[in-house]
Amino acid sequence: MHYLYFLFLFLGLWSCSGKQHTSDQQPTKDAGYYRVMHVHDSIMPLTGDLFKLRKKLSLFESNADTIMRFDIFRIKKMLEDADEAMMSWMRTFNEPNSSIPENQRNSYYVQELENISAVGSQMYAAIDSAQILIQRLENETQP
Asked: Beta-carbon neighbour count of residue 115 at 10 Å?
């Protein structure tokens, strides 16, 4: 009976030490990575808004005059460009290997933080422009 107790105790301690050992070997991410990902994660949900706004603007196209259609097209293009900017940034972002010197990794993260922040600004500007135009279109169609 004592043999089984020591066997389970040994197995329990061995399994705990194994988990601790593997977590020690996992590379930690740089603080810059988390800053970049925080900005990305905060603006990524806006891609759904970009799609919804493009769809809503399309509803107004058939009844719009030529000048208004041009405005709708222009704003839809802004929304598409903002969406493509996000997709392009995601395709080109590559977390630097931990073997690269820390100062080079930090420089990369500073540049990527600027890039993703610019994408966010582009997305917010497109959304604001679309909302203003939609409000104008809705006001014109009301009796």
From this structure: 17
Query: Which domain range does residue 37 map to?
Result: 28-141
DSSP state at residue 64: S
47 in a domain, yes or no? yes
Number of domains in the chain: 1
Output the pTM of the full model: 0.77
Considering the domain boundaries, does residue 131 fall inside one? yes
Look at residue 13 and tell me if it is in a domain: no
Residues 6 or more apart from 81 whose CB is under 8 A from it?
Answer: 122, 126
- 33-53 tens-digit pLDDT: 999 999 999 999 999 999 999
- The 3 state secondary structure assigned to 123-142 is HHHHHHHHHHHHHHHHHHHC
